[in-house]
Write a structure and sequence with these properties.
heterodimer; A: about 300 residues; mainly alpha; MetI-like fold; about 75% helix; B: about 350 residues; alpha/beta; eight-stranded mixed sheet; four-stranded antiparallel sheet; about 35% helix; binds adenosine-5'-diphosphate; binds iron/sulfur cluster; binds magnesium ion
């Protein structure tokens, strides 16, 4: 087990280095001169430009800049924006917003997705089953920003049940964006759960559990569900990646001051330090979540032993 | 499709478990396909009934109907009854049915690996019903479970209690499944080919175990098996199934000495004599019939060395050829005995 964790941490470091290097190169290749962007409409004063270049080490070769960046990451320093803001500190304030959004989205996926999947597996071709099928189709065919605008208009503006955008209303502010972000894969989670559970219900050990006189609820919850949820957990682990990238759009639509929104703005402004910083945090979160999912397997399925 | 039933006796006295004229069909593309076509047998307290028959003859299906774990649909129970201590189980609502499972009738599945939940520890799995149904405390259930594990001769039961199924060998797994089925001390235990997946020596051990457990508790034992050798040593009575029906039934000695159905005779001949331990049935020549609604006549006629014109016209019903010895063949018992002896 310690060996396994060590190798996984090493893997994580490699992924982190690889991903940030890629994003470093890409942002480097972005069109436009950041110094000029900073200066605005008028031509930048050469002395000023020189100072900026030196301050942000823009005159150094790419790899050297990258090395400097890595050194900073190890010390928890993600650099500064061109306007002099500390990126790590700025993201630290925003990560809370993104975290809440992701938590709501995941909660929707688990509650609605897994719940509907269970119902439709138990009553195949029943109401829940038909509902899931329609929902899946809708989920797959309607782009989620369309869902977002429709909900904003109907639930937010017309009915006034939920805030349209922003975070002024605390908890309530996250319901609609969380649902929109979660709806991306809720239908898929429902399908996956349904398929897995349907299969598990046919297993001999489930029939055995029934034949020893357990209630249906106990058979499903204690014997069938646990095995069926293993692939669902895997999916939800990978899904965190989709939630992070989905957050970029969702936070922009709902005007949530999270990391995704910072990312979208930074890309727009050519604000390289922020882009690289956000990606670094995303990759870190992703890698850590997947490590946790792997460890969760071992809890769900005792046949898996990491060595 | 009327019942071929040993009338009189079966109807007047109350058996511990009795299957009567059971009919099950599957919905096919061109109408329902019959799978059980009037299965009847019974078992009493302290008795072992062996059910023999080729794969696909409907043995497991019968067991599933008794346990109430048949998937309906696609299957449909179109007739017959299952009586336990005189109560018709098929008409019972689910909660009452559940009460009978495990306590009235327990079942051991064919494949012990897949009958144990791979993600749960063996001990708690065996003792699960002690807690959910008898309401024992965790500790009491544990003690009783370890006792059960000892009873089925699982060594180091205390340590084994905490292990997972994949730590168990095939034979040990089958013992665990037996312990699980016996947890609530059922009146009847149905063991569906309990030894098929095991090594020959382990097979013998498991059969001995079942026999010993049956003698200790006085329960009724229904042993579904391919193993003729096993039948000879531990069964009291035998029911031979072919194409969804019982074609011969009687006490084990009669069946072995004077088989009254050509199919039974063929099964007996297929047992290799030199090595009785490998007493698995060798394949009979020919295929089991594909059942459809068009079938008339004796379903065994295509493979029967004695088939006559009448065999094509009508399907024979079970008739009592001698005291307690029933067979479904148009030929009389003596004719069969004579001709078959001449054959072999
Ligand atoms: N889902 C199904 N659909 C149609 N026929 C089935 C299905 N399941 C089982 N059968 C048929 O039921 C018959 C009896 O099967 P089974 O009771 O398992 O036989 P046995 O246990 O004697 O080997 C077989 O001929 C099989 O083809
Ligand atoms: S009825 Fe005819 S075909 Fe069927 S077993 Fe008897 S002799 Fe053979
Ligand atoms: Mg079978």
């Amino acid at each position: 087990m310690p060996r396994y964790i060590t190798s996984r941490v090493l893997q994580a470091v490699l992924v982190l280095v690889g991903a940030t290097l890629v994003i470093f190169v890409i942002t480097f290749a972005l069109p436009g001169d950041p110094v000029q962007a900073l200066a605005g409409e008028r031509a930048a004063d050469p002395a000023f430009a020189e100072a900026i270049r030196a301050r942000y080490h823009l005159d150094e070769p790419l790899l050297q800049q990258y090395g400097r960046f890595l050194l900073g990451v190890v010390q928890g320093d993600l650099g500064q924006t061109y306007s002099g803001q500390d990126v790590a500190q700025m993201l630290g304030e925003r990560i809370w917003v993104s975290g809440q959004l992701a938590a709501f989205a995941l909660a929707f996926q688990i509650l609605i997705g897994v719940g509907a999947g269970i119902l439709s597996a138990l009553r195949r071709n029943g109401l829940a089953d038909t509902g899931v099928r329609i929902f899946t189709l809708a989920g797959l065919s309607i782009p989620f920003f369309v869902t977002a605008y429709v909900l904003q208009l109907v639930v937010g503006v017309k009915l006034g049940w939920l805030p349209v955008a922003g975070t002024e209303d605390g908890f309530l502010s996250y319901i609609m964006p969380g649902f929109v972000l979660g709806s991306l894969s809720t239908a898929y989670v429902a399908r996956l759960t349904r398929g897995q559970l349907t299969e598990a219900l046919r297993e001999d050990y489930v029939r055995m559990a029934t034949s020893k006189g357990l209630t249906r609820v106990r058979v499903v919850a204690h014997h069938a569900l646990r095995n069926s949820l293993i692939p669902v957990v895997t999916f939800l682990g990978l899904e965190v990646g989709a939630l992070l990238s989905g957050a970029v759009i969702t936070e922009s639509i709902f005007n949530l001051p999270g990391m995704g929104q910072a990312m979208a703005r930074a890309v727009y402004l050519g604000e390289r330090t922020t882009v690289v910083g956000v990606v670094t945090v995303f990759v870190l979160v992703y890698v850590v979540v997947n490590l946790l999912v792997d460890l969760l397997y071992a809890v769900l399925d005792p046949r898996i032993r990491y060595a | 499709m009327s019942a071929a039933t040993p009338k009189g006796r079966a109807m007047t006295s109350e058996h511990l478990l009795e299957v009567h004229d059971l009919q099950v069909e599957f919905g096919g593309d061109d109408g329902p396909v019959p799978v059980l076509r009037g299965v009847s047998w019974h078992v009493d307290r302290g008795e072992t009934l062996a059910i023999l028959g080729e794969s696909g003859s409907g043995k497991s299906m019968t067991a599933q109907v008794i346990m109430g774990i048949l998937d309906t649909p696609p299957a449909r129970i179109s007739g017959g009854s299952v009586r336990w201590n005189g109560r018709d189980l098929l008409g019972l609502p689910e909660p009452a049915r559940r009460e009978v499972r495990g306590r009235g009738v327990g079942m051991v599945f064919q494949d012990s690996l897949s009958a144990l939940n791979p993600v749960l520890r063996v001990g708690p799995q065996i003792g699960e019903t002690l807690r959910t149904r008898l309401g024992l405390s965790r500790r009491e259930a544990r003690d009783r479970t370890v006792e059960l594990m000892r009873q089925v001769r699982i060594p180091d039961a205390e340590q084994r209690y905490r292990q997972y199924p994949h730590h168990f060998s095939g034979g040990m797994r089958q013992r665990a499944v037996i312990a699980m089925a016996l947890a609530l001390s059922p009146d009847v235990l149905i063991a569906d080919e309990p030894t098929t997946a095991l090594d020959a020596t382990v097979q013998v051990q498991i059969l001995r175990l079942l026999q010993a457990l049956q003698e200790e508790s006085g329960m009724g034992l229904v042993l579904i098996t391919h193993d003729f050798g096993a039948v000879a040593s531990i069964a009291d009575r035998v029911a031979v199934m072919y194409a969804g029906r019982v074609v011969e039934t009687g006490v084990v000695r009669d069946i072995f000495r004077r088989p009254a159905h050509p199919y039974t005779k063929a099964l007996l001949d297929a047992v290799p004599r030199a090595d009785r331990r490998a007493g698995r049935l060798a394949a009979l020549p020919g295929q089991p019939p594909v059942l459809g609604k068009e079938s008339t006549g004796c379903p065994f006629r295509f493979r029967c060395p004695l088939a006559e014109a009448v065999c094509e016209e009508r399907e024979p019903v079970l008739k009592e050829h001698a005291q307690g010895h029933w067979s479904a063949c148009h030929l009389g018992k003596d004719v069969i005995a004579d001709v078959l002896t001449a054959h072999s």
